[in-house]
Amino acid sequence: MAQIFKPSANHITTAALYGVVLGVPTVWLAIAALSRSPANTKVNVPINQPVPFSHQHHAWELGIDCRYCHANVEKSSYAGVPSTETCMSCHSQIWKNSPLLEPVRQSYETGTPLKWNLVNQLPHFVHFNHSIHVARGINCNTCHGPVQHMHITYKGNPFQMKWCLECHRAPDRHIYKDESRPDLEPRQQVFNLYWKYQKDGLKGLNLRERSLMVGTFDGTNDGKERAKGKELVKYYGIKVQQLADCSVCHY
Amino acid sequence: MNRNVIFFAVASVLLAGCHTDMWRQNKSAPLSQNDFFPDGQASRPLLAGTIAKGHERKDDAFFTGAKGGKWVNELPVPLSKKLLLRGQERYNIFCSPCHGQVGDGNGMIANRGFTLKRPVGNYHTDRLRNMPVGHFYDVITNGYGTMYSYASRIEPSDRWAIVAYVKALQLSQNAPLADADPVALEESLKPKEDKAHAEGAKH
What we know:
The structure holds 2 protein chains of 2 kinds. By secondary structure, chain A is an all-alpha fold. Chain A folds into 3 domains: about 30 residues; about 160 residues, no CATH class; about 35 residues, no CATH class. Helix content of chain A is about 50%, strand content about 0%. In chain A, α5 packs across α6. By secondary structure, chain B is mainly alpha-helical. Chain B has a domain of about 100 residues: Cytochrome Bc1 Complex, Chain D, domain 2. Chain B contains 10 helices and 2 strands, in the order ααββαααααααα. In chain B, strands 1-2 form a two-stranded antiparallel sheet. The radius of gyration of chain B is 28 Å and the shape is elongated. At the A-B interface, α5 and α10 of A face α3 of B.
């Protein structure tokens, strides 16, 4: 009876064994890396819009408060994209012949809203509420990145569940209060930071505020800061043991 | 044949999770699109005369700033420090871009061309100092000249807070020296040391 396996089969077997040992984790890690990369999460990828609106220009250079346009962010689950009327309250006078603003004027004349492309989109089975996060002093940039320095708006964070849970499991790492302004409610602290940044520049901010403003804040591991965070969590009555329950966001 | 059956069986099990109907549900959220309506909006405008339960606007002075065809000259809400602070916050958000933080009509937007047609309102004129508070409320609600209505963004109670703050601004820019707090006055007359530092910090 002839040999079933030729001597070369030895090499094939070795290659196959190595292939399984190395190949499976490689493919696995590649998929994991790809799902976390901007190719999938769209973090740092500017999204084209019908009008090339610049937050850098409006919020930083002109110093317009976030709430001028996102007027509902303090009291509603939706921050709200401004209506055309809000754009036109300045642009009926300023840059009124600019071809870039033609879609805005058309929208205002015809009463058809502009179709902005969503930058941050959650799956429909996730319920997010802006107002409660603002009411606990979570700065906009914590989630949205350095919006005041974005020309064309992009996503600042992946918005994957793992990322949400980083804060929901340990809010004391993220919650913050500006101790130089004890008179302000947490809700006001959120926006006061931008006024402070306008007035004093980065030099006028402490390390944490600075990292918030440039969009690199990722939670603190400093013991003292966390102790302060724990106090705030207690003071605000945040129920940490329930904060990471499924039903907090999926209901 | 047998091999094909196994392939489809395995594929159907593996791909069973690949559907997105929970991710993109067939429901409407605020600001979402619905092509059924000509303007493409899923949220529908309120019909004229709609009143939400418990929100009937009976109080003319509070909701229109006028009573019996005349602007009211007294705030229809109790004046407090809390009201003024709320007014200051709302004023700095919505009004200061044009009217400036002291109300002199010299805000950033005014400086950038809003004045082409006519200057932005300056509160520190005799005409506006003598104007009844109802007028300011009416301007926020319905707009004035080239200024648009802010009714959709500022609720009535906040409009009154802003009106109160505008009145405070008027006082602040037109107060006799005798009204000043002597200690604060002394402070403000001292030469400022940290001015150079403050300018250095701004980049």
